[in-house]
Amino acid sequence: TALSDRAIDICKSILTSNPKYAQAYANIAILYRIKASYKLNRGKNPEEEVLQGLENAKQALQLNPKLATAYLETSFLRWIGAYYKFYVGEDPSQAVAASLEEAQKSININPNDFTAYLNSALNYSLMANYQVDIQKSPAITVKNGLNFIREAEKINPSFSMSWTVEGRLLLAQARWELENNISAEGTFKKALATIERARELNSNDADIFSILAEYYRWHAVWLSKKSKDPTKEVESGLEAVERGLAINKNFGELHLTKSALYLIEAGFAKDTKLAEQSLKAAQKAVEANPALERKVKPIRESAQHLLTSQ
């Protein structure tokens, strides 16, 4: 963030001599988006940085209403705000709708910028997971998200994050299917193939290993519901977790998935030592990202229950 602050100061100095330079305001919005992402990934409220970024994007658009970058940064900033709402259990719908509107404005000006389609898909992925959490079918949301992410993949098929987002959309659909006793195996297979494609493109991205571990988590749950042994899926998930943590040891979602995987195997094997491992990983998840407490709580409670019932 210190580098971002220095870059912001440089942009402001440019604006002192050229106050009508729209791109400088857009660049400041980009830098505030980077600062907001930094806080979001550590479970801190990015509201201040989001507002600062939005104000600078607004200034850019007042000077140049055709500046696609400013619309795109407005969209990304609103998505960050929406994601924080999702983290803490609030309804992100309005923020997502606002983000999608700005992304579409960027697409209208520059239809060849794959990042605008990517950001639209990120919003749909967020909403799909929120809908699953509130027990609402994400099918239409997933379909819309897939339409956008495939446009992004068409323009730039080598960008691994697009395939990761597609995997997240498909995994949200698979979660809905398994929780509603609908055959989910086909959706799980599609999700895994997509995530593996992302890993082929970039094997040094902790987020890819995070979604891969999450896939194994929910597929293990699916197997458990069918009274099948989830051990192989748990082991594969834990391997993915460790690969991700080797890249970023403070990745909260990886510790969260590790906790969930240990809990699944603890429940299947009736192993209290694994329940203790689940609790340790849960604690590390919250330490890395306090906003994960909402997701950690039911895992922690289940692990504690398993310990006291044995």
Protein described:
- The chain is an all-alpha fold and 310 residues long.
- The protein is built from 14 helices and no strands.
- It has helices spanning 2-17, 22-40, 47-63, 68-87, 93-109, 114-133, 139-155, 160-179, 185-201, 206-225, 231-247, 252-269, 272-288, 293-309.
- Helix 3 (47-63) packs antiparallel against helix 4 (68-87), helix 4 runs antiparallel to helix 5 (93-109) and helix 7 runs antiparallel to helix 8.
- The longest helix is centred in the N-terminal third of the chain and has 20 residues, at 68-87.
- The N and C termini lie far apart (48 Å).
Total count of helical runs of at least 4 residues = 14
- By secondary-structure content and strand pairing, the structural class works out as mainly alpha
Residue-averaged pLDDT: 95
The topology string of helices and strands comes to HHHHHHHHHHHHHH
Assembly form of the protein:
single chain
Rg from Cα: 20 Å
- Extract low-pLDDT stretches: none
Sheet of most strands:
none
Gap between N and C termini? 48 Å
Shape: globular
How many E strands?
0
Explain briefly what this protein structure is.
With 310 residues, the protein is mostly helical. 81% of the residues lie in helices and 0% in strands.
Please describe the structure with a list of short key phrases separated by commas or semicolons.
single chain, 310 residues, mainly alpha, 14 helices, globular
